[in-house]
Amino acid sequence: MKKSITKLSIYCSLFLSLAGTAQAQSADTVAEFKPSGKLWGYAFGDFAEKGSTDNIGTAAAPVYRGGANQYSGMPANASLFQFRRVYLGYNYDISPRFSAEFLLAAEDNFNGGLINQGAGDITVNGKFAPYVKLANIRWKNLWHNTDLVIGSQATPSFAKTGRNDQTAEEVWSYRSIERTITDIRRTPSFDMGASLQGWFDNKGCFGYMVMAANGSSAKPETDIFKWFSGDVYAKFLDKRLLVDVYQDYQRMAWGVYVAGHNGPQYRDRNMTKLFLAWNSKMLTVGTEIYQNTLLGDTKVAGKDGNTYYRTTKAMGMEFFVRGRILSNPQGNAVLGYFARYDNYDPSGNLSNVVGEANTKSYSAMTSNYEPSTKEQFVTFGLDFTPFKNVHFMPNVWMNTYNSALAYDGKNSAGTAYAGMGTGSSAGLVNGIKGTDAVYRLTFYYVYGK
Which stretches of 316-374 are DSSP H helices? Predict the structure, then answer.
């Protein structure tokens, strides 16, 4: 009883404190404020032609690597006109301290209309379909230089609005060409939850964002675990030099019973990421480096008949450069360029897993972090801007795949690595190097901003 009374007292004190804050805020010049909203959006798409396709299977039974990318499985010589994203948003200022954000998005993750393609954001009859991506309310200056945001919102690694305004996606600034390297692996760029976003100083040179969320993006929560993430950043030299550090953690299974002597399954993931950039009017360069540790995420079938869960580590590095070639008299870019290189290796600790004498076979439990294949991504192109917020960008998109293990290698018991993969890992240990190459004319336009 005493504990219940104590908890009730704490809750009442917190409520009264927030009520007092709200009452103090009502002293703002409400009479001078007029609620208002703004409709906005943008869209991008391409005319794209596939030059070459990675296929390590046969014509009758194709096997495509790079399931996280938008062109895996698209046949060579295929061409298409297609939107890859259409946004329609509405922002509304409710009061000097409260604002709301709403966003409908239609995004084609996997080009669902093409031969051999999986379904993207499409209806059952194959039409492009929008969904609710963002819907949140922001309490500004809940305390000094700190906002509280509740609802579906951009996450700390991707937030481009509010307090945290210098993420890798914003500095790269060519989401219309490709996601950032962590976004490709589906680290949630938006999620349903609550966050605090703030500055440590009044100029916004040092800031942070922390968030607790479902970890399921636009989908409803399906487990008892939450996804925790946080980001701190610092800007130096008149905000041109940016240092950004990100960390997240999520349990995916904890104490799940597994038959045999291996005991319960414990499975989680945690990512550490560093982003560095020099951002100026004429030239921007940046690099994003991360390691994602996936505890118990590789399922191993042992020769002893038992199931084991092993840990692997994925590492990725992205380097990009963009700049201006020509500007108009007003100082706006008319012609620019961009180039990017990614190196992705999800196979950390895999050689130890397959090297065990007891390992008969393995499979990845998280398809976006399948550990058998290394990838190298390259894109480059020009950005022609005949008018502000209108872009035409001829570009080349290439992703190359290679086995993370020697296909002719064997473990200490003589089992060949090439025969170990099952499920999503089947057939991926081989000596074949392949490339998805796409040639595009991308168009991108923004309205309402």
Answer: 350-355
